[in-house]
Amino acid sequence: MSVGVIIPAAGSGTRLGEPVPKAFVKLGDRTILEVCVAGVLDAGVADTVVVVVPADLVDDARRMVPEATVVAGGAHRSDSVRAGMDAVGVADVVLVHDAARPFTPPAVFGRVVDAVGAGHPAVVPGLPVADTLKEVVPGDTSGIEQVRATVDREPLRAIQTPQGFTRDALRAAHADDTGLATDDAGLAERVGIPVHVVSGDPLAFKITTPWDLRIARDIVAESAR
Ligand code: C5P
């Protein structure tokens, strides 16, 4: 069973507040992208790795991660994933893995690949939700929002990457893209493909905010000690 991995890394990372796009922010000596690609290679599941970056950073990325094929991304995450699909070649299983989750342990890759190999067309890693979740009345701009309801967290999962698909399932999912989905499994659900969840890992957290970046830098500093 051949496995291709697409790493979307073409986001601007506005919420991080850094002067360079998120995947090019440094964690110690290496960029988030370099740490992520090294992690994917360490997992030992990938036959091919495709990295998708902003068009003006393709040459920089090629120098940074020579092990990967580097292509230019698009305006939305799903545009970037499709650019990666065109470059990934023939693979039985395609994993889509956010560059912004550079510490994802090898075992998570293994669980996702195994579940797709066992016959599930779309598989995502997920974790139970720890916080109490409340739905608020939308549209409030005052900064004080009114609660509409408390949501039952028991059946909810916070979804991570890598998300794994048979090649056909990923193609079918992306054939009907509205540009609004925040993950690939969401697109699969829309076209009726069953999506299954395997256990994720706290280390697969996504670097999104300055707080996440601080934690990521601490992890790298601690592992260098
Ligand atoms: O914006 P968000 O944090 O959800 O992005 C998740 C991943 O998708 C990041 O690794 C980001 O670089 C990537 N992305 C992309 N192309 C875009 C937007 C996001 O490759 N247009």
Automatic annotation (TrEMBL):
Site (Positions MEP for the nucleophilic attack): R153, K206
Enzyme Commission numbers on file: 2.7.7.60
Keywords from the UniProt entry: Isoprene biosynthesis, Nucleotidyltransferase, Transferase
Annotated site residues (Transition state stabilizer) in this chain: R15, K22
Keyword RNA-binding attributed: no
Pathway terms, separated by semicolons: Isoprenoid biosynthesis; isopentenyl diphosphate biosynthesis via DXP pathway; isopentenyl diphosphate from 1-deoxy-D-xylulose 5-phosphate: step 2/6
Catalytic activity: 2-C-methyl-D-erythritol 4-phosphate + CTP + H(+) = 4-CDP-2-C-methyl-D-erythritol + diphosphate
GO molecular function: 2-C-methyl-D-erythritol 4-phosphate cytidylyltransferase activity
Keyword Translocase among record annotations: no
Function: Catalyzes the formation of 4-diphosphocytidyl-2-C-methyl-D-erythritol from CTP and 2-C-methyl-D-erythritol 4-phosphate (MEP).
Family: Belongs to the IspD/TarI cytidylyltransferase family. IspD subfamily.
Protein name according to UniProt: 2-C-methyl-D-erythritol 4-phosphate cytidylyltransferase
Organism: Gordonia sesuvii
Stretch of the intact protein here: 1 to 225 of 279
